[in-house]
Design a protein that fits this description.
- With 366 residues, this protein is α/β, with parallel strands linked by helices.
- The chain folds into 2 domains: 44-127 and 305-360, 3-Layer(aba) Sandwich (D-Maltodextrin-Binding Protein, domain 2); 129-282 and 290-302, Periplasmic binding protein-like II (D-Maltodextrin-Binding Protein, domain 2), CATH 3.40.190.10.
- It has helices at 6-35, 55-68, 81-89, 110-114, 147-155, 164-167, 190-202, 204-209, 227-236, 247-252, 272-279, 318-331, 334-342, 350-360, and strands spanning 44-50, 72-78, 101-104, 121-134, 144-145, 181-185, 223-225, 241-246, 256-257, 259-261, 267-268, 304-311.
- Strands 1, 2, 3, 4, 6, 7, 8, 9 and 12 form a 9-stranded mixed β-sheet that branches.
- It is elongated.
- The N and C termini lie far apart (68 Å).
Length: 366
């Protein structure tokens, strides 16, 4: 039997390991090449990633735009606001994850903007309601939740569906003696930020323990899922559950949604007119980051959010910059904004759309 010296053995082992690593790298490269969309000669590929909340609308927009502009190919990965910001900033991101634009329901914090080498411009793009969807077979009619009730549910202090805080707002409704299971986001999420920003505004206990955040160490028996779609699916298959999702995701699969008590003591649904009423109270600052954590008005739905597209101030590829400018100028146009209503989102007020367009003009296109 041939015996190898220690040095020779180490050399052989290193060569074998190098070959394996090269093989893995080649496999990843081949896989990336296979998944890369076909771009026509002279065309431009625009890659985006981020928020799941507006992803249904973005999919419709991008497909319609690409159909009318076949030289522009657009991909969008709905990976959550936190991951979208990470990929947009681009530090420590490999080539397969690099994007030309990001998307976030929590806008973009100052520290992330400061870490972005090419700068960042935030463009309000659309808006919508965060619904509290639930699964209670046999419970008919509309379920009403007071502010104390739904804050208590997510704090883990309201634990049963027949809790007096819930029953009092629903006289005549036979609520089951069933444990409440909350369904929450596992990933860094702008939808989570919208909910927790609201809870921070209405609940002293929430403010002291958690505050507004994109990731929360949820109390109680919370079940976790990725993305709005994952949360909606888990609610659909979990009797006794309640969770927070963009209203479009609840509507699409027929989930029941609660009427929530607003600041004026009225119980309102997460429909577009109620979201529009809430957003009409927002004051948009110069940086275009604004939230309405507890909107006034009898018709206002209490949990609403705008959502933002993130673009760089400067692109090294002039053709890509021009294509991005043309794409988002199109999405901010009135005909495109009207598409949002058909999908249960909220069009931007014309004044806000104009300010987004003005911010888009600051992006260098050559």
């Amino acid at each position: 039997m041939l015996k190898l010296s220690k040095s020779l053995f180490a050399m052989v082992a290193a060569l074998v390991l190098s070959a394996l690593l090269l093989g893995c790298q080649a496999s990843r490269t081949d896989a990336a090449a296979e998944n890369k969309p076909a771009v026509p000669p002279g065309g431009v590929l625009l890659r985006g990633a981020g928020a799941t909340f507006p992803s249904v609308l973005y999919r419709e927009w991008f497909e319609a735009y690409q159909k009318a502009h076949p030289d522009t190919v657009i991909t969008y990965d709905a990976v959550g606001s936190g991951e979208g910001i990470r990929r947009f900033v681009g530090q420590g991101v490999d080539a397969a994850e690099q994007v030309d634009f990001g998307a976030s329901d929590a806008a973009m914090p100052d520290d992330a903007i400061a870490r972005t080498p090419q700068g960042a411009v935030l463009l309000p793009m659309t808006a919508g309601s965060v619904a509290l969807a639930y699964n209670l077979p046999g419970v008919e009619g509309e379920l009403k939740l007071t502010r104390k009730a739904y804050a208590g549910i997510f704090l883990g202090t309201v634990k049963s569906w027949n809790d007096p805080l819930i029953q009092k707002a629903n006289p005549g409704v036979k609520l089951p003696k069933l444990t409440i299971a909350t369904v929450v986001r596992a990933d860094a999420s702008g939808t989570t930020f919208a909910l927790t920003k609201h809870l921070d505004a209405i609940s002293d206990r929430w403010r002291e323990q958690f505050g507004p955040a994109t990731v929360v160490n949820w109390p109680g028996n919370a079940m976790r899922a990725k993305g709005n779609e994952g949360v909606a699916s888990l609610i659909q298959h979990s009797e006794g559950s309640i969770g927070y999702v963009g209203y479009e995701f609840a509507r699409r699969i027929g989930l029941k949604v609660a009427l929530l008590e607003n600041k004026e003591g009225k119980f309102v649904p997460p429909l577009a007119p109620n979201a529009i009423a809430a957003l009409s109270t927002a004051e948009l600052p110069e940086n275009l980051r604004a939230w309405v954590p507890d909107p006034a008005g009898a018709d206002s739905y209490p949990i609403v959010t705008m959502t933002w597209i993130l673009v760089h101030k400067d692109y090294t590829d002039a053709a890509k910059a021009k294509a991005l400018h043309e794409l988002f100028a199109w999405t901010l146009s009135q005909p495109s904004q009207k598409m949002a209503l058909d999908l249960a989102y909220v069009p931007l007020p014309e004044s806000v759309a104009k300010r987004s367009l003005a911010a888009l003009e600051t992006v260098k296109t050559q």
